[in-house]
Amino acid sequence: MTPPPFWLMRQAGRYLPEYRATRAAAGSFLDLCYNPELACEVTLQPLRRYQMDAAILFSDILVIPDALGRSVAFKQGEGPVLDPLSGAADVEALLVSNVRSHLKPVLETVSRIKASLPEKTALIGFCGAPWTVATYMIEGGSSKDYAKTKEWAYGRPAVFQALIDILVEASSDYLIAQIDAGAEAVQIFDSWAGVLPEEEFRRWVMAPIKAMVERVKAVHPTVPVIGFPRGAGLLYEDFAREVGCDAVSLDTTVPLDWAARVIQPLVTVQGNLDPIHLVSGGEAMDRAIDRILNTLGRGPFVFNLGHGITPAAPPEHVARLAERIRAFR
Ligand SMILES: Cc1c2[nH]c(c1CCC(=O)O)Cc1[nH]c(c(CCC(=O)O)c1C)Cc1[nH]c(c(CCC(=O)O)c1C)Cc1[nH]c(c(C)c1CCC(=O)O)C2
């Protein structure tokens, strides 16, 4: 047995003092996302400490609404704040043709990272999935219940479909451009996939991601696509079977034995250490890491967290995690 490859969602971030220093020098969070030199620097920071097997582009899923002409801001302690879409007229006014030129700095960041990475380290590009990005655009930020977005999806499906179609096209083009610039795999983050009933999950999570995978594969057939339908529960199986992703990222709640038996025969699995184990550390973290390695580490597997690392994780716990994965035989 060789140790599985690993990287961590949000591996560049506030738990690292060097990130906080660069972030403070950059101005706003979006300024950092659009500054190729500094975005490349923060992408590489966690790799210098922990030598992950992959780097993930430093950016955010909300650069797409920003590129489409919606106002996006990140307020200290509040998370993202967007000017919420109010209806069909706002959807029609989205600046679809603006996306590639607006996101040029991000593509330059990709090229810079690629040029700085050793050959053996993979570069992962990413974007948000249409459903999750739509929730931010309609709610105007984070949400507890996604009520407005669901009202659009259930009660005004034609308008909602028009928005989803725009996001499918813009996001696939963006992923293709990231691959053109040097990304060697891409991940589609559907962080709020888990709040929908079955029928709507198929329509608003599975179908748009399937359309995106088809578009990306038409241009780059061999570049792996990782899907992350966080919270999909039992629907992880149909997602893995039907959407066309090469790998599926498992959230923290997915039972390991079930994943080994049902999902791993279909696709490569990635996951799923609870990020809070990285905060509490100690023997409980060690046991959780070992269970994941022992259950999933003998099949096609990438070690990761079940969601993004939190600012409270002590960097030495991440070092302990990296050591433990590398010691797996
Ligand atoms: C839902 C979502 C967002 N962004 C993202 C998602 C999907 C994954 C997930 O569910 O966590 C994805 C994302 N955001 C960021 C990355 C960078 C790459 C990485 O290291 O993984 C990635 C892949 C940087 C970031 N994106 C953000 C930060 C923190 C901003 C800061 O430094 O002040 C970072 C490092 C801001 C952000 N961006 C978003 C929120 C809700 C927030 C505020 C919450 C927070 O502050 O952690 C939207």
Automatic annotation (TrEMBL):
One annotated GO molecular function: uroporphyrinogen decarboxylase activity
GO BP term, example: protoporphyrinogen IX biosynthetic process from glutamate
Domain of life: Bacteria
Site feature Transition state stabilizer, where: D60
Residue ranges of domain Uroporphyrinogen decarboxylase (URO-D) in the record: 124-140
Primary localization class, coarse: cytoplasm
EC number assigned by the record: 4.1.1.37
Matches recorded under SUPFAM superfamilies: UROD/MetE-like
Record has Lyase as a keyword: yes
Coiled-coil regions, chain positions: none
Gene Ontology CC terms: cytosol
Catalytic activity: uroporphyrinogen III + 4 H(+) = coproporphyrinogen III + 4 CO2
EC primary class: lyase
Residues bound to substrate: R10, Q11, A12, G13, R14, D60, Y136, S191, H307
Protein location: Cytoplasm
InterPro entries, sorted: UROD/MetE-like_sf, Uroporphyrinogen_deCO2ase_HemE, Uroporphyrinogen_deCOase
Pathway: Porphyrin-containing compound metabolism; protoporphyrin-IX biosynthesis; coproporphyrinogen-III from 5-aminolevulinate: step 4/4
Keywords for this protein: Cytoplasm, Decarboxylase, Lyase, Porphyrin biosynthesis
Family matches, as CDD domains: URO-D
Entry similarity comment: Belongs to the uroporphyrinogen decarboxylase family.
Described function: Catalyzes the decarboxylation of four acetate groups of uroporphyrinogen-III to yield coproporphyrinogen-III.
NCBIfam families listed in its UniProt record: hemE
Self-association state and partner proteins as the record states: Homodimer.
Protein's recorded name: Uroporphyrinogen decarboxylase
Species whose genome carries this gene: Insolitispirillum peregrinum
